[in-house]
From TrEMBL:
Domain annotation GSCFA: ranges: 28-263
Phylogenetic lineage: Bacteria, Pseudomonadati, Bacteroidota, Bacteroidia, Bacteroidales
Protein name (Swiss-Prot/TrEMBL): GSCFA family protein
Gene3D superfamilies found in the cross-reference section: SGNH hydrolase (3.40.50.1110)
Organism (species): Acetobacteroides hydrogenigenes
Molecular function terms from GO: hydrolase activity, acting on ester bonds
Length: 330
């Protein structure tokens, strides 16, 4: 009979230790749900060379797979690929953040992001994919699965469940396509810790279970594919509702920070982790709002931080802190 540690108040998820890791030295991509954006924004803030969601937020595995294949194909959208809804032009393959009142503006935003994403996919060391839900929406008229419904009438869609086999097949094809243009590309899959309660709590658990099984199937059948347990950390280590936002569904900022730090521990190389900690101090100084921006004390602070940023840039040749140096030198 084992005796539990009386000072231990959590069941901890064992973190993977990836052999191939991301860092400042080579660009990488993140695609998928809004959790990918949450983590990606923290990496961008720390100046890592990461591109986040070139199609905007995408939740279901079929749309994620389709987006990857679109980047590999490199074909731009044309005007006929867009549709107008509620005064906005939209793409069923993209998030509403790309929508615009002017069709040409919408098309330009989409094609610029896709072109950048195609280049980034060819150059990336890793593609990190966050899957959100197994539930998807299929247009009745064409049978196409959409990444976003854009408030089109529900009668236009069939709600479908993407089972494990379908997800594995689609994502396998997407990985193969990505590696046809970038043979050394490593893949990290994770499942979003955000519960989709509008699907129903039972349906959400079924959905997440299917995604987790798909991820582990891909890890076992493909080389260079790994899994990071975002969902499991939220459900087991952070199961208390104090780690949730006011809607009791989304992880709080604290919870995202905790999962982010665990991701960094598993997936970022040691030299980059050291640099991230130093970059964070520079970025915090930039974000600081002074009481008196014209005072001698603040000017002295800025001169000190500019010198530190310049020294840090010399220490790590892969860092570009020119924006921060200019900010402190004004």
């Amino acid at each position: 009979m084992s005796i539990l540690d009386p000072n231990k108040y959590q069941t901890e998820v064992q973190l993977p230790c990836f052999e191939a890791r991301v860092g400042y030295q080579r660009p990488f991509m993140m695609m998928g749900s809004c959790f990918a954006t949450n983590v990606g924004e923290r990496l961008v803030r720390l100046k890592l060379p990461v591109m986040v969601n070139p199609f905007g937020v995408i939740y279901n595995p079929l749309s994620v797979a389709s987006s990857i294949r679109r980047l590999v194909d490199g074909l731009p959208l044309v005007a006929d690929d867009l549709f107008e809804q509620g005064g906005l032009w939209n793409s069923y393959a993209h998030h509403s953040s790309f929508s615009a009142t002017d069709r040409d503006e919408c098309l330009a935003k989409i094609n610029q992001s896709m072109a950048s994403g195609a280049i980034m996919l060819r150059e990336s060391s890793h593609l990190i994919v966050t899957l959100g839900t197994s539930w998807a929406y299929q247009l009745k008229a064409s049978g196409a699965v959409v990444a976003n419904c854009h408030k089109t009438k529900a009668a236009e869609f069939d709600r479908i469940f993407v089972n494990t086999s379908q997800a594995v097949e689609a994502l396998k094809e997407a990985v193969a396509a990505a590696r046809s243009i970038n043979p050394s590309l490593k893949i990290i899959f994770t499942v979003s810790p955000i519960r989709h309660i509008k699907d129903g709590l039972v349906e959400n658990q079924r959905s997440k279970a299917s995604l987790i099984l798909a991820c582990h199937t891909l890890c076992s059948e493909l080389s260079g594919v790994a899994y990071f347990p975002s969902y499991e950390i939220m459900m087991d280590e952070l199961r208390d509702y104090r780690f949730y936002a006011d809607d009791m569904v989304h992880p709080s900022s604290l919870a995202v920070d905790i999962i982010f730090k665990k991701f960094v521990h598993s997936a970022v190389n040691a030299q980059s982790v050291e640099a991230m900690n130093e970059v964070d101090r520079i970025v915090r100084a930039v974000e600081h709002i002074p009481f008196n921006s014209e005072g001698a004390e603040y000017r002295k602070f800025c001169a000190s931080m500019a010198a530190k940023a310049e020294a840090l840039q010399r220490k790590y040749s892969f860092l570009d802190l020119s924006v921060e140096i200019e900010r402190f030198s004004r």
